[in-house]
């Protein structure tokens, strides 16, 4: 305020002077001044790299860049404190062209006409849900045109051979599972020329509704292309089981193998609680023979080192066989093994269930087709189903006979209770394989080794090399062991019996 000449106080306007920025610290650079503003342009954000124009309604919508802005205060050393004008110049128009949100293409006149035609076309309400419709569309994909399928079911020309097997089974399942849908479509009264009003799966259901007896015809077709085709194979496998069981019981070699194994085991177990066994669970007990190995690793005969008990049993069988070589016995064992392998490929319980299923389906199909109006095609299909009934009846007899043979043979061999036929035959096949290998390792009989040009007496008893079977029968600690000695000594003058009789003189 200034004072005039009259002494009164007069207000005098003061000149406003912009304050200078505070002095910067030593060694630091002051931030650059913001660029001048223009109308319609906002100042750049702090630390920004360019200017952003005010949003204009006519500007295209651009794709957003989802990056991570920093909201905290920038340190003095941040790169974003650099001069924004150092950024390279950008072509905003080019960015807008390349990164504008694409607008949906205008529908062409032709496509628009097709869509309008589809929307205006009248359709029957879909009776199937989306998932069921998709599954049936896949199942019916190999079927012919619905009208052609209708002709096939009405005339039965080359039915069911003219259709894919899977398609026939799918149609048969749909006729029963989608019975309500078939009835609902039939009530619509759709004619052949109006099938385009239905979706593809519903068209095939329409065929099932308008064709007389379609369900029973498809039941006959599904039987012929399905379970009936398996009857010959099941019949053949059932016969294999019967033949294998009969071969086991009639094999003299198998009987001698079982009894010789029992005698050898009783000799080894004579001092244990398992001594004097009268019977064995077969074939499980026979599989233990190969597991038991000889402890005479220091034997003079190198070929006898590490031999199993099965090797001793096999040697005894060869030495006691008259007129038969180890190769002959091996061939017989291989035949038994083949029979066991063939018999294990089927479960009689499954075969019996399949037989009952075929009988039930065949009887139902035959009764149903007999009620349809008779013609040549119907009679031909009915005769085919009747033949399946007869074949299934014969298969039932074979399955029953095979079960009786199996039960008898399992009792004969003292099989463990509740064992399945597949497991039982597989164990027998494994033992026969082990026995065949043991016969392949057999040495020449003792009589041929002890015989020379001068005869058996030319070699002293103490110089004879005992065979593995002689080691088994030399110990007579049980009745079965003595029986084995008597059988082995009757075959050769210088064989097992000669070695066992010479043993006391060496003591």
Automatic annotation (TrEMBL):
Describe the location of the FH2 domain by residue ranges: 52-461
Annotated Pro residues bias: 31-46
Could you tell me which residues belong to the region Disordered? Answer: 1-54, 450-507
Q: What's the protein here called?
A: FH2 domain-containing protein
Please name the SUPFAM superfamilies in this protein's record: Formin homology 2 domain (FH2 domain)
Q: Which organism is it from?
A: Zooxanthella nutricula
**SMART domains, sorted:** FH2
Q: Which InterPro entries match?
A: FH2_Formin, FH2_Formin_sf, Formin_Homology
């Amino acid at each position: 305020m200034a004072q005039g000449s009259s002494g009164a106080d007069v207000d005098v306007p003061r000149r406003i002077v912009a304050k200078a920025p505070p002095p910067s610290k030593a060694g630091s650079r002051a931030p650059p001044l913001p660029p001048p503003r223009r109308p319609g342009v906002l100042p750049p954000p702090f630390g920004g790299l360019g200017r952003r124009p005010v949003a204009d309604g006519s500007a295209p919508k651009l794709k957003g860049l989802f990056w991570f802005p920093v909201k905290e205060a920038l340190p003095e050393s941040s790169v974003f404190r650099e001069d924004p004008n150092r950024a390279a110049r950008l072509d905003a128009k080019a960015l807008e062209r390349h990164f504008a949100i694409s607008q949906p293409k205008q529908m062409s006149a032709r496509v628009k006409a097709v869509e309008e035609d589809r929307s205006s076309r009248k359709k029957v309400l879909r009776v199937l849900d989306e998932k069921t419709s998709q599954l049936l569309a896949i199942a019916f994909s190999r079927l012919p045109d619905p009208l052609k399928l209708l002709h096939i079911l009405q005339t039965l020309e080359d039915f069911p051979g003219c259709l894919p097997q899977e398609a026939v089974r799918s149609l048969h399942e749909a006729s029963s599972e989608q019975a309500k849908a078939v009835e609902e479509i039939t009530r619509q009264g759709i004619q052949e020329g109006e099938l385009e009003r239905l979706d593809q799966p519903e068209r095939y259901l329409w065929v099932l509704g308008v064709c007389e007896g379609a369900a029973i015809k498809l039941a006959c077709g599904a039987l012929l292309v399905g379970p009936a085709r398996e009857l010959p194979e099941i019949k053949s496998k059932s016969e294999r089981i019967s033949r294998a069981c009969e071969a086991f019981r009639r094999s003299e070699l198998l009987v001698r193998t079982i009894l010789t194994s029992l005698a050898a085991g009783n000799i080894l177990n004579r001092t244990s609680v398992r001594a004097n066994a009268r019977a064995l669970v077969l074939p499980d007990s026979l599989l233990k023979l190969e597991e038991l190995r000889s402890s005479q690793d220091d034997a003079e005969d190198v070929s006898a080192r590490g031999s199993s008990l099965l090797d001793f049993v096999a040697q005894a069988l060869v030495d006691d066989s008259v007129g038969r070589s180890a190769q002959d016995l091996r061939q017989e064992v291989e035949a038994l093994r083949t029979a066991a392998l063939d018999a294990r490929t089927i479960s009689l319980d499954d075969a019996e269930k399949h037989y009952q299923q075929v009988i039930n389906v065949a009887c139902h199909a035959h009764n149903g087709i007999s009620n349809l109006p008779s013609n040549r095609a119907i009679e031909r299909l009915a005769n085919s189903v009747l033949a399946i009934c007869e074949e299934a009846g014969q298969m039932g007899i074979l399955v029953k006979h095979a079960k009786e043979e199996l039960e008898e043979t399992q009792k004969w061999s003292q099989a463990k209770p509740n064992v399945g036929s597949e497991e039982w035959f597989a164990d027998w096949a494994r033992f026969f394989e082990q026995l065949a290998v043991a016969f392949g390792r057999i040495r020449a009989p003792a009589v041929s080794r002890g015989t020379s040009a001068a005869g058996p007496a030319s070699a002293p008893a103490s110089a004879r090399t005992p065979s593995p079977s002689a080691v088994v029968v030399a110990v007579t600690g049980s009745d079965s062991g003595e029986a084995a000695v008597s059988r082995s000594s009757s075959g050769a003058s210088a064989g097992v019996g000669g070695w066992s009789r010479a043993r006391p003189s060496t003591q």
